[in-house]
Structures are given as structure tokens and as C-alpha cells.
Amino acid sequence: QVQLVESGGGLVQAGGSLRLSCAASGRIISINTMGWFRQPPGKQRELVAIITRGGSTNYADSVKERFTISRDNAKNTVYLQMNSLKPEDTAVYYCNGVVVVDFGSAMDYWGKGTLVTVSS
Q1: pLDDT at position 103
Q2: Helix H or strand E segment including 120
Q3: Of 32, 34, 100, whose CA–CA distance to 69 is shortest?
Q4: Count of CB atoms situated within 10 Å of the CB of 89
């Protein structure tokens, strides 16, 4: 059993910053790609940023130069530093991880989400 638990969401004014964290626990041998997705009100879930175990990153165009994804492999934790927040960043943010739970077996896990609200 693997759990991903997000933290750090909340209410912030436009132009402000928040830092999200996501810690994975349970039967984990290693974690491959980790990422952050978000679902704005009334819209579909979308990719925000992903990071490989080696540290390569990819970002949605809408967050480039404002958000930074990072990870601590020793702690099985991924972070999302969000700066210059805009009202359109308001969403439930979900953590995702491709977790190696047994040799030769990797599974996709999701956190339950954390709400980020940006007021104008």
C-alpha cells in the first residue's frame, strides 16, 4: 500500500507565493517520475509540472518562469514552489508518482489533492 499526501495549499492574494509538498509512504522501492497536476473549478485535470528521478523537469506553458518543481529522493517527497500566483491558478492540486513497488512492477499513485485559491 502506497500513500501520497499533499500539504501546503491555502488562500493567497494574487502575486503571492505558496509551496506545496507531497510525501509518499508505504511499500516503496523507488519512485520514477513525480508530478503535480491541477483541476480548476469546472475544468478537467491538467499537467502542471513533472520531474524525473534524475531531476529533469517539464512544465506547462502557463506556469513556466513562475513555478518550480523539485524533489528529495531520500524523503520520497516532491515540492512545487509557486510564485507570482494568478487567480487562474486557483485549483485543486494533485500529486502523482510512478512508484516501483516490486522489482519489475511500477504503479501510478495519486494524492487526494490540496486546494489552492488565489484571490484578485
Answers
A1: 83
A2: none
A3: 34
A4: 22
> Per-residue pLDDT tens for 31-68?
999 999 999 999 999 999 999 999 999 999 999 999 99
Distance between CA 40 and CA 93 in Å, rounded? 9
Report how far residue 20's alpha carbon sits from residue 94's, in angstroms, rounded to the nearest whole number.
10
By C-alpha distance, which of 22, 111, 7, 6 is closest to 72? 22
DSSP 85: -
- Could you tell me the three cell numbers for 7? 500539504
Please state, as a whole number, how many other Cβ atoms lie within 10 Å of the Cβ of residue 63: 22
What letter represents residue 89's amino acid? D
8 A C-beta contact, residue 6 and residue 22: yes
Percentage of the chain exceeding pLDDT 90:
95
How far is the C-alpha of 23 from the C-alpha of 77, rounded, in Å?
4
- Strand partners for 96: 35, 110
Residue 76 has a CB neighbour count (10 Å cut-off) of: 20
Query: For residue 65, what is its C-alpha cell?
Result: 518562469
